[in-house]
Amino acid sequence: MWSEDRSARAERLPGDWAKRRMRVLRRDAYRCQARDSAGIQCGAPANQVDHIVHGDDHELDNLQALCRWHHARKSSAEGVSSRRPRARQSREPERHPGSL
């Protein structure tokens, strides 16, 4: 079942998304384009297409093939970073009982 966020995201995809998706998968030879900190490419079989820069830029140069694991990991990280930080509750520190 699709969450509201995913269905809203799907509504923002261009009408030719299926064609773009296939072009990216073919261009990337159905291999995951994710790279680790040393710059080594994952290369696992990829069946998902991801926006390199999060947002609604659907140009081919902003799309990459990713394996399921890397796509889930990247999407999770983007979701966490997009949350607004919670306001810290602050209160005056209590005086030490010995100083009362």
From TrEMBL:
Annotated Gene Ontology MF terms?
Answer: endonuclease activity
- Segments crossing the lipid bilayer: none
Is the Hydrolase keyword given for this protein? yes
Origin: domain of life: Bacteria
Q: Tell me if Glycosyltransferase is a UniProt keyword of this record.
A: no
Basic and acidic residues composition bias: residue spans: 89-100
Region of interest (Disordered), residue spans: 73-100
Q: InterPro entries given for it?
A: HNH_nuc
Q: Which UniProt keywords apply?
A: Endonuclease, Hydrolase, Nuclease
Descriptive protein name:
HNH endonuclease signature motif containing protein
List the lineage, top down.
Answer: Bacteria, Bacillati, Actinomycetota, Actinomycetes, Micrococcales
